[in-house]
Amino acid sequence: MVTIDNNAQPVADRTYDEPTVGLIVPPPEIRSIVEKTAQFVARNGENFEHKIRQNEMNNPKFNFLKDEDPYNGYYRHKVKEFGAGTAQLTKADENIQPAPEDQAAQATLKPKIIIPTEPPAEFEFCHDPPTLNALELDIVKLTAQFVARNGRSFLTQLMQKEAKNYQFDFLRPQHTLFQHFSKLVEQYNKGL
After folding, report:
1. Is the residue at 99 inside a domain?
2. Residue 21 sits in a domain of what CATH number?
3. Residue 5: inside a domain, yes or no?
4. In terms of Cα–Cα distance, which of 32, 28, 25 is closest to 71?
5. pTM of the full structure
6. Of 41, 69, 94, which residue is a domain's last?
7. DSSP classification of residue 168
8. Does residue 81 form part of some domain?
9. Calpha distance 125→191 (Å, rounded)
10. Which of 32, 39, 131, 136 is nearest to 78 (CA)?
11. What number of other Cβ atoms are within 10 A of residue 79's Cβ?
12. How many domains does the structure of the chain reveal?
């Protein structure tokens, strides 16, 4: 916290006896660090604070030591309280206890452990494609989708129309890709 005053003192010469107005209380994880540091600074003096500032210069958890940080006022207030002997370390986690209805809600959110007694079923939609280039794979997949959507009559018409097209050789039962094509048609039928 910065106060403007006609007799402004440099930051290094600042005392901890300044009045504190509008404290911003840090969250529990930062509050515990602030309070412990304030206790040690009250016990060991400002030189200890300067050492911490130098050692933890790049540590964001100790930003409260900087005058422009919003938690600096809380830190200064705690140093003053610990110096006067009126403050004690608080455990932030113990001070915050959930309401009974929140505890009931948390109990229902706990994961239930299920131990399987049977092996899982095989994946229905898992089929490794044979080694194909991208164009061939797209032709096989799209043809399987159209056959699943339009039925076997579409397949027989397609086989007659594309009988001389080498890209549709997988439609013949003796082709190596026919089994892969049939599996895709079956999977698309289940999906539709």
Report:
1. no
2. 1.10.10.790
3. no
4. 25
5. 0.38
6. 94
7. G
8. yes
9. 9
10. 39
11. 23
12. 2
Q: Are 144 and 90 part of one and the same domain?
A: no
**What average pLDDT does the segment 31-49 reach?**
87
Could you list the beta-strand ranges (E) of 48-191: none
Domain that holds residue 79: 11-94
Q: What does the pLDDT look like over 138-189, one tens digit per residue?
A: 888 888 888 888 888 888 888 888 888 888 888 888 888 888 888 888 888 8
- Hey, what are 35's tokens? 């309070």
Task: Give the tokens for residue 8.
Answer: 């402004």
Q: Indicate whether 77 belongs to any domain.
A: yes
CB 169, CB 175: distance < 8 Å: yes
> How do residues 42-97 score in pLDDT, each as one tens digit?
888 888 888 888 888 888 888 888 888 888 888 888 888 888 877 666 654 444 44
Q: Which residues contact 69 (CB under 8 A, 6 or more apart)?
A: 63
CA dihedral 18→24→26→27, nearest 10 degrees, is 160
The kind and range of the H/E element at 19 are: none
Inform me whether the pLDDT recorded for 10 exceeds 60. Answer: no
d(CA 128, CA 122): 14
| Helix, strand, coil percentages for the chain (3-state, nearest 5) | 55, 0, 45
99 backbone dihedrals φ, ψ, rounded to 5°: -65, 160
